Amino acid sequence: MTISRLTADQRDAILAELPRWRLRSDGLAIEAELKFADFNEAFGFMTRVALYADKADHHPEWFNVYSTVHMTLTTHDAGGLSQRDADMARFVETLLPG
Amino acid sequence: MTISRLTADQRDAILAELPRWRLRSDGLAIEAELKFADFNEAFGFMTRVALYADKADHHPEWFNVYSTVHMTLTTHDAGGLSQRDADMARFVETLLPG
Q1: A70, A94, B19, B45: most buried, per Cβ within 10 A?
Q2: Taking the model in full, what pTM does it have?
Q3: Chains A, B: CB contacts under 8 A, how many?
């Protein structure tokens, strides 16, 4: 199955909706730096995202050190951003305070 | 509590015991690139390490994309490698095949 790449307009709409996320400099991914109270909360968050990712068969690139999680979302099969990244970013937002 | 930094001899003994791990170029951390069958296995591994880390109050720096986990171990309170990193690396080894 080919996955469509988002248009520039679709991408801009998502970034406007999700202020925590920014476009990576190459324009092919979105990324966010997420802060939690401690490692337990950070990994609890990662576990909820992992269960989503496993079901959606769409996976983040992410780095964790203690209470910080840096996430990058892209769709390799689309050669850039797809609806799957937008869906995952929206799901991530539902897990975050405020 | 001050945590002692490993001596060069202790560090070399650990690296000899754990061939999957290499010293980071600055000498202050050890790192390993771990490959799994898929995301489910990779995150299952991370979950077991996270439970250990939470109990030990010693946390890895790690990056995951799909089936790959890149781990870096260091002890900030020791300004380099400590026994805690050696213990965590040995625990990681018990979770890996072969």
Answers
A1: B45
A2: 0.95
A3: 40
